[in-house]
Prior knowledge:
Structural class of chain B: mainly alpha
Number of strands of chain A: 2
Radius of gyration of chain B: 24 Å
CATH superfamily of chain A: MetI-like
Largest sheet of chain A: 2 strands, antiparallel
CATH architecture of chain A: Orthogonal Bundle
CATH class of the domain at 60-162 and 198-283 in chain B: Mainly Alpha
Oligomer: heterodimer
Strand content of chain B: under 5%
Amino acid sequence: MEAGSLSSKKTGAPKPSWASGSGSHVGDAILKYGLAGLAVGVLVLIAYFFVRLIVEAEPALSQVGVIDFVFGDSWVPSQGDYGALPLLVGTLITSVIALIVGVPVAIATALYITELCPKRFRGPLTVVVDLLAAVPSVVYGLWGIFFLAPKLEPAEKWFSETFAFLPLVDPDKVSIPNYFVAGVILAIMIVPIVSAISREVISTVPAEQKEGALALGATRWEMLRMAVLPYSRAGIAGASMLGLGRAIGETIAVVIVIGNAAVIGSTIFSQGYTLAAVIANEFGEAASDPLHRAALIACGLLLFILTLIVNAIARYFVNKAEEGQASRVPAGMAG
Amino acid sequence: MRQLEPTSRTRIAKDRAARGFLLALTLLALVPLALILYYLVKQGFEAINWEFLTTDPTGRFLGDPGGIRSAIVGTTIMVALAAAISVPIGVGVALYLVEYGKRTRFANTVRYFIDVMTGVPSVVFGLFVYITLVVSQIGGTFAAWKGSVALALLMIPIVARSSEVVLNLVPDSIREAALALGAPRWRVVTRVVLPTAFPGLVTSSLLAIARGAGETAPLLFTVAFANEMAFNLNDRMNSLPLQIYNDVSQAQDRLVARAWGAALTLVVMILVLIVIARLVQRRSRLAT
């Protein structure tokens, strides 16, 4: 902290005298407190949000019990069984597949675009990768169910037969759609955000460090491995967690391609369900049944808490990576 | 003088392999985009014609399914209202953070929670509006304005964060110049900072709008579905994402064809917003 505040003095961070505002102007006061009120409003909204979700989920949680709700493995609304474990497991399986498939690709694009790509391709490549984020999730779902799922089926069958000895793979249990299709769709959807944040983090690696590595005779790859990656590791981890948060919360694309079967699938090619998918899919039928509705809201609460934790950790890493590096660069040498 | 050792062959080979691998993965990331766009255009063009764009869905399962006029109109209305709510709030919060809050603990807390808010799944926002506005029956049950509120909740953090970046680009020197001329702080903000940052703020707002336009989950719980064209904000309204979602779930080829047509229309609308946003950004005088 000490060092950070010392070095930032040169860049003008300490408040100039006018920044504290002179109280004599009514306009100033109105603008200042009006805007501060907006900011407070946003915080209050988030708190209210959380409280209302708990209140509305309470009937289901007290009827079933919090532990039984989270770890019960039977979700049959028609019989009043509300165990969210199959949904939770589905959310985890699809998100993990999304991370395994999506994160390496996203990091590779970030490294390639920032460090290896010829300068004139840098802009266009960035735009194209970002375009993946512009496709609405319902369109991903549409494409996933009518194009990707049928195209992946032969590959899944072949994989299941060839690697039948692996856990979570069984040649007799390949159904379309399934966890894996959902995971791949999610992987495609998280690439742009993971790539964008990784690019930001990687571009904060000081040029002297990279040039130093190259001057010592490192090849480009060695420079990336020894100078860039260690420096941006925390930030890339944070970026991946932000991607995880996205994958956990994605609803519409998943509900279309996962099959919506409320059981814990025995293979990665089984049909399943996720927390987000169940809310979207059963919401209509739950309107007439208060307990079912409360159970779905409880799923929303669980989802909210999960994403909150994941995002809080992710932001911690990303902020630390970006700020820590900014203060480590001597002020005059930045950029 | 001693001859310099050439870099060993294995190291060069490793370097080549690694760079090739990174390039290959980068190209791999572009494959799904190409496939999606290809299929979208191919299937979408088959469905789209003038009649498709100018008739309402009939709601019939068999026979003529109709077009998507009400969905285009509904999406436009709801997204416009959502923008009218979220842009002032988002830009206002960003102004507070940049002009007044700066690095105080309170400002950092707001910043942190806005970041966290960007990570909240859209389905949860939908659920929240459903609980607070639909279940409690404020002005009836499902209504277009409630969908706009849900979209606005999702757009506020996006607008706030990107506007903050833009406002930070306004050089302190011109703020100081205005203050030195005796302008009060609020006039500096409204007459100097905002006009300077205007193109950038337009860009960040348009990108947030583009994001909101494609969202399905928040509308699902708040607006419900309607076939006929509606202009009453207090009533159900059709929208492109919901139209697509409804049609996908049907085992009927003509409905699926309409889903592709609607999807292409939606993606084109979003791309137009993004292109306008980028053009405005290019004309901005602030360096990004």
